[in-house]
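lol forgot to send this yesterday, sorry. struct tokens for the thing we talked abt
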């Protein structure tokens, strides 16, 4: 089966994807655990396309990475409810054996549950009727069958629930105008939006097609309640086309901030300290010597325009300005520090009264920034 071929080797892209998901799960767990302890004392990890647990080279995939670390953590041993699913009986059998072979698996209070079900409307209806405990939801289909707005929203609507899903851009891009899979595209985008999208895509070049498809997907998710969307792009081996995205959806800025930092760390390139939010094997083989754009300088100019005449803390600047932009917190602090050094803004306390770290003046969340009036675009 195609799904099984995916696990024949642990490619670098698969490892990056698994690291992003595992890193976020643990950061998310630390945030929701104190509140969860005051209620049902449980949190959940759900993976509906779990696969066999290991790649053929023996590398752990996401389910075993999560469980291995949970066994080592005192809180997680008592709180984690792990639910895995795969429609392939062979994958289910391998995953079950791999889980039971984990040293210390018996120490988990809740035995991991493994289901053998095809993901579709039946699961969506079931989830829509449930009230979820804090849940991190990972949806990783090989293509697009089973991925729907209703599925994502069924979990995301509850407190403490976040979702990451695999978006096979290459196959979706080809499938939008394929009559044979029109129904799946309608489920993914919503029928009206998918119809409008097909019309708008006519005549667009590849870059504009990708931007439009992601924009429409993001808007669909926002209409379902996911106010913050963050994509991470994967490119082909030679870096000339997009293959897929890992897309994060949440209702809370804290989760958005955490995931942005993680995706920034996993980016294959940085320009002026601004991460690319993509993994491209070609970037490591042929690193760019000269960058045409200067994104940190562009951020500084944006801030002068967007906050002209305002007095506001660094933290408020970051929270109000960063959504939908691929800048992480340290980029904002660096841009503001550069503006202060250049005399373009005033900061309270000023640089000479703030501590230094590694030879650079810090720019704490509580620093108040005064922007000059009258900056025009």
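and heres what i got for the seq, position by position
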């Amino acid at each position: 089966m195609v799904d099984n071929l995916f696990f024949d080797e642990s490619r670098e892209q698969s490892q990056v994807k698994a690291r992003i998901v595992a890193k976020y799960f643990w950061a998310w767990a630390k945030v929701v655990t104190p509140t969860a302890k005051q209620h049902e004392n449980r949190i959940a990890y759900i993976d509906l396309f779990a696969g066999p647990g290991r790649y053929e080279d023996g590398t752990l995939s996401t389910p075993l990475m999560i469980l291995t670390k949970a066994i080592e953590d005192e809180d997680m041993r008592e709180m984690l409810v792990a639910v895995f699913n795969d429609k392939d009986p062979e994958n289910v059998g391998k995953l079950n054996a791999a889980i039971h072979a984990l040293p210390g698996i018996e120490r988990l209070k809740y035995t991991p549950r493994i289901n053998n079900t095809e993901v579709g409307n039946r699961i969506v209806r079931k989830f829509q009727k449930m009230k979820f405990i804090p849940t991190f939801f990972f949806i990783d289909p090989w293509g697009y069958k089973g991925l729907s707005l209703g599925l994502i929203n069924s979990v995301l609507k509850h407190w403490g629930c976040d979702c990451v899903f695999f978006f096979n851009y290459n196959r979706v891009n080809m499938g939008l105008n394929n009559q044979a899979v029109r129904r799946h595209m309608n489920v993914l985008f919503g029928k009206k939006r998918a119809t409008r999208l097909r019309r708008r895509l006519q005549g667009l070049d590849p870059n504009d097609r990708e931007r439009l498809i992601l924009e429409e997907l993001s808007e669909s998710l926002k209409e379902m309640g996911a106010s913050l969307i963050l994509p991470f792009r994967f490119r082909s081996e030679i870096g000339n086309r997009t293959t897929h995205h890992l897309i994060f959806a949440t209702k809370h800025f804290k989760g958005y901030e955490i995931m942005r930092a993680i995706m920034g760390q996993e980016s294959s390139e940085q320009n002026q300290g601004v991460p690319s939010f993509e993994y491209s094997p070609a970037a490591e083989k042929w690193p760019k010597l000269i960058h045409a754009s200067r994104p940190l300088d562009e951020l500084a100019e944006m801030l002068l325009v967007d906050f002209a005449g305002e007095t506001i803390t660094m933290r408020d600047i970051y929270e109000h300005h960063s959504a939908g932009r691929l800048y992480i917190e340290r980029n904002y602090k660096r841009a503001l520090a550069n503006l202060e050094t250049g005399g373009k803004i005033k900061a309270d306390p000023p640089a000479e009264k703030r501590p230094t770290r590694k030879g650079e003046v810090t720019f704490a969340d509580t620093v108040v920034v005064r922007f000059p009036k009258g900056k025009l675009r």
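Residues 12-37 form the longest helix (26 residues). anyway ping me if u want another try
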